[in-house]
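Budget justification aside, the reviewers requested a transparent look at the raw inputs and outputs of the sequence design task funded under Objective 1. We therefore reproduce one unedited record. The lines immediately below are the structure tokens for a 199-residue chain.
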């Protein structure tokens, strides 16, 4: 797959996941579908500068993700060896990295369409929303993995399968590789540097 095409797919991932909020099980499909146009409208709005568009997108992204859970999964067993302060520091950096990754792809948006295919049970207690990103020449399958927050009975995204590859597992492999060569604090410095470079 060409790198440019992959970036476009990642953009659509950000658009779709940005288009929802923490929702009930029977509302996932309809709410995800209804909110897509809102995000695209923001992107196309020529009256908004880049900073304002980013701000509005971030406001919509935040409620649907459990960033701390995503950070914990991406770090694997190392997470349990950290103090709560270090966990919070890593989770904050990880959240910033995800948001930066989404925002930097906005300029790649052209005319891709998103079609919701189905919402099915996944790994016993979870749900997976299957979608298709439809371009002028190619169609890609994107799956959004939801879990239920037992405290609120609402469903949140904790991972995305991008053309068959888990985003969180990809990060997990990256962090595992870094931790073979560096201490956790040294890896935090690398994470800060790479995230700040994209700001």
């Amino acid at each position: 797959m060409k790198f440019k095409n992959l970036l476009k797919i990642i953009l659509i991932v950000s658009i779709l996941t940005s288009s929802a909020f923490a929702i009930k099980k029977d509302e996932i499909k309809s709410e995800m579908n209804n909110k897509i146009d809102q995000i695209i409208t923001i992107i196309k709005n020529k009256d908004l500068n880049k900073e304002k568009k980013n701000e509005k997108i971030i406001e919509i992204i935040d409620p649907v993700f459990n960033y701390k859970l995503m950070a914990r999964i991406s770090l694997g067993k190392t997470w349990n060896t950290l103090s709560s302060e270090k966990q919070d520091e890593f989770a904050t950096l990880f959240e910033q990295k995800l948001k930066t990754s989404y925002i930097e792809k906005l300029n790649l948006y052209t005319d891709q369409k998103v079609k919701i295919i189905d919402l099915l049970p996944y790994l016993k207690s979870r749900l997976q929303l299957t979608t298709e990103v439809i371009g002028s020449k190619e169609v890609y399958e994107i799956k959004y993995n939801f879990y239920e927050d037992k405290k609120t009975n609402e469903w949140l995204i904790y991972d995305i399968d991008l053309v068959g590859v888990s985003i969180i597992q990809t990060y997990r492999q990256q962090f595992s590789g870094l931790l073979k060569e560096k201490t956790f604090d040294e890896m935090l410095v690398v994470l800060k540097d790479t995230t700040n470079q994209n700001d």
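The chain has seven helices and five strands. Strands lie at 113-122, 126-134, 139-149, 154-162, 165-166. Computational costs for records of this kind are itemized in the attached budget.
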